[in-house]
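Q: Protein A?
A:
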Amino acid sequence: MKSKTLKENKDFRRLYYRGKSDAASCLVTYAMKNRLGETRVGITSGKKIGNAVKRNRARRLIRAAFSQYEGRLNGSYDIVFVARTRTAEVKMQEVQRQMEEQLVKLGVLN
């Protein structure tokens, strides 16, 4: 099941205020059930992370890590991943490990 992309600012804000969240050293995850019958994913990386190359690398790592778990989700969710300063500097396995822990903790993953 391929997920769609979250693009609207109002969707991001709704998740920040009403969604459940979990933070780790290189990733913050916000998740909330939706009634759309499909999972929507948004990825943000602020200016604090560094230049465009670092921000894009962070987003790429998060996207690749999430693709490993896409098929194992419990139902349909809106998920936002926020990259942190360390995200661009760690290996993908580290991002995957933290993402799996967070998704399990938030009840998104079995």
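Q: Protein B?
A:
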Amino acid sequence: MGTYKITTDDTLRETIQHGNSRYPFAYYPDNIWQFDFHRIDWHWHHELEFLVVAEGTATCLVGAEKIELHQGCGLFINSSILHRFEAQDSTFIPNIVFSPTLLAPEKSLIYEKYIRPVINSSIPYQIFYPHTTWQNHILQTLSKIFTLQEADEDNELYTIQLLLQIWDIFFKHFDLTSGSPALHHVNHKQARLQIMMQYIHDHYREEITLETIASSVSISKSGALHIFQSCIHISPVAYLIQYRLAQAAEKLYTTQKSVSSIAEETGFTSSGYFCRKFRQHYHMSPGEYRRKKLNRVLTLPS
């Protein structure tokens, strides 16, 4: 079994097209455990997303929140919200990602009255629990949509009918009273976070400090700390180290370069420091990680 990796652009927007212009809908029977480092990394998209944890437990980081979602629970992620999923074991999360225009054309009465208010609200996500009646109705309808995608190719009309049923229930229970300014604030903060993260991605091989990260968006060091901590629950420097370790880990099993060379190429000041940080993060030495990965590749069925 191979691993999957999510692809994003410089703003962390997911680059894959979800469906097509004629039918902007996609179904993904994802298992988080099959992705690189057992996580579906930070990304966002303009489309709406619904998912259900069908097996296992998913750690979902959405907007500025960290959520533990257990089997049977579901989640709605609003448009343009930065999110990430992690798992400690096999965790199956079938999900659908679709353009809001699938429900109704922009500028139509339906879109303006029932869809735009949700997109422009201050709510980045909504959890669905099976013990809450209206939320359980949504979970059951999502299950029907997932089954439909797996069983029938000619399912577009019924899929849209079910989506409209979900949206009808969802809209009736969605709290729109807090207005939109908070979401605009979140989006502004998210935009700065994305620029700083991309700065790290582009310059991780170089010497980087908290000051240089903050300077990439012209804010103070304390401002950069606040944005990272509130959005992704980690400091900028800790994120830099994790990113360097991830790049180093990939080089360990895709190249034959020495550990010291990889440490230098990924921005670590010494191989000793690199090895200590690697063991802290992956609970094994770089050499052990390389052998484990290579053995896994050799034992995969042809």
